[in-house]
Amino acid sequence: MLPLAATAAADGSCPLGPADRRGSYNVHLGKHSLNGRERGSQVIQATQSYRHPQYSTVTHVNDLMLIKLQRPARLGTNIRPITLPSKCVSPGTSCTVSGWGTTTSPDATYPQELQCTNVSIISTADCKKVYQDLLKESMLCAGIPNSKTNACNGDSGGPLVCGGVLQGLVSWGTFPCGQPNDPGVYTEVCKFIPWIRKTMRS
Description:
Layout: E1 8-10, E2 25-29, E3 42-51, E4 65-69, E5 94-99, E6 115-122, H1 124-131, E7 139-143, E8 159-162, E9 165-172, E10 184-188, H2 193-201
Antiparallel strand pairs: 1-2, 2-3, 3-4, 5-6, 5-8, 6-7, 7-10, 8-9, 9-10
Pfam families: Trypsin
GO cellular component, one term: secretory granule
Organism: Phascolarctos cinereus (Koala)
C-alpha cells in the first residue's frame, strides 16, 4: 500500500492473492498486526478454494476466488461479514483500500501493521485512456489524480470498500507502484454476484 496510511490474511511470505495458492493453508481473521496473536483474532484452516473458472493469468479477467473454511468464524468486534453490492459503484465515489502490501516501490518494504488509504472510483472512460485494451469489462479503477497513493505488490485480493460495501478486490496496476495518474485496477465485485451466490450454495 502506497503510501503508509475484519480482514483476513493467509500464512506465507506474502498475503493471499485472489487466484493463487489453492493448496492447504490457514486463514487469519480479525488481524491488524502480522506479529503474533491478537485479542479477538481467529485462525481457521481453509478446506477448499474456488477460483473463478474463467480466470486468466494473462489478462487478469475474473480475478477472484472464494475460500471455504473448516468451520464458521465466530463474529465479534474484529470479525464481521461485509455487505456485497446490490448495484455497481459510480465514478467519483470515495472508497478505502487496505492490505499488507509493500509501502515502497520498486524495492519492497512489507509492513507488519495493516495499511489503508482512501481512493476514488475512476470512470471506465478515463481509465481506458491509461490502460486501453488491458482494461476489461470485469475490472474497476480507483485512485487519486496526481497522487502516488495506491495499492501495490502484496495487496492483491485486498478489499476496496465504498460506504461499507465490498465493491472491488485489488487485482493489478503499473510497476513501479504509485505512478501519478495511473489508477489501481480492481475486480469489480458487482459483476460476480450470481457466481458468488451459486458457489456459496454449492
